[in-house]
Amino acid sequence: MTSPDEIVAMELARLSAAFVAQLPAQVQAVEEQVTAWLDAPQDADRYDVLSHRVHQLQGSGSTFGCPGISRAARTLEQQIGALRRDITAGRVPAPAAIESAMAELQNEARRAQTPSQGPEASP
Amino acid sequence: MHGDHLNRILYVEDDADIRKIVSMSLEMVGDYTVAACGSCADALEVVDDFAPDLLLLDVMMPDVDGPATLRELRKRESTADTPAVFITAKVQAGDMAHYRRLGVFDVIVKPFDPMVLSDRVGQIWQQYRSGGHDVAG
């Protein structure tokens, strides 16, 4: 008989596989939203949509076996926040750090697609 | 006043996959009864009939976030004093101070391991029952 723990573990494995399968599309959507926000950084709605999606990736990455995604998303979230503070303070925004963080997120998404490297065990 | 045993948990989380695995873990591993809601509006619809012992709220949600959801739930007689726990990746010192001001009892940090979540919730409940500290306290 399958125990409750085993049933939850099986569902976690299924959701983790689905998460990894959806990662390329998720990261692509983040990239498009980053581009859209950088085109109009004063647009609060674009910022809200972007920051929510990145925050969600940060929260779900490790839960679904991809801690590298959580780390990269956290860095991206911090850089987005820093750029927003620059804009609010009237400083000239320098988006290079966001582009770098975005590239790292894309690298982690590719890594997660490699069977030998992802998904990793939950923390 | 709530009973000694934790049974009913109102859980609000907008991410459907996280909501599913957390609900399964709490129900199947922890043997709790869970009302899982995708938004503040969903929660307000069920909360009076459900009469939870514990509120488990995601912080960063679109439209109405966790703190605003808690404020709405505090207006209801059924949850005016119900202990609240936030689940969040936002745990900077300033965030924790904010949660403390809201009267949140504890925080579960994202990301978390769903397989041990029900144990963590059980520990928080025991701490609450024994009059333990609140968040950042």
Kindly describe this structure.
- The complex is a heterodimer of chains A (123) and B (137).
- Chain A has 123 residues and is an all-alpha fold.
- Chain A has one domain: Four Helix Bundle (Hemerythrin (Met), subunit A).
- Chain A has 4 helices and no strands.
- Chain A has helices spanning 4-39, 44-63, 67-88, 96-113.
- By secondary structure, chain B is of the alpha/beta class.
- Chain B has one domain: 3-Layer(aba) Sandwich (Rossmann fold).
- Helices cover 42% and strands 18% of the residues of chain B.
- Chain B contains 5 helices and 5 strands, in the order βαβαβαβαβα.
- Chain B has helices at residues 16-29, 40-50, 66-74, 93-102, 117-129; strands at residues 8-12, 33-37, 54-58, 84-88, 106-109.
- Chain B has a 5-stranded parallel β-sheet with strand order 2-1-3-4-5, sandwiched between helices.
- In chain B, β1 (8-12), α1 (16-29) and β2 (33-37) form a beta-alpha-beta unit.
- The longest helix of chain B has 14 residues, at 16-29.
- The model of chain B has no long low-confidence stretch (mean pLDDT 91).
- The interface between A and B is medium-sized, with 26 and 20 residues.
Order of helices and strands of chain B: EHEHEHEHEH
Query: What is the number of independent domains of chain A?
Result: 1
Helix content of chain B: 40-55%
Oligomer: heterodimer
Poorly predicted runs of chain B = none
Q: What is the CATH-assigned architecture of chain B?
A: 3-Layer(aba) Sandwich
Beta-strand portion of chain B reads: 15-25%
Please render the helix and strand layout as text.
The complex is a heterodimer of chains A (123) and B (137).
Chain A: H1 4-39, H2 44-63, H3 67-88, H4 96-113
Chain B: E1 8-12, H1 16-29, E2 33-37, H2 40-50, E3 54-58, H3 66-74, E4 84-88, H4 93-102, E5 106-109, H5 117-129
Parallel strand pairs in B: 1-2, 1-3, 3-4, 4-5
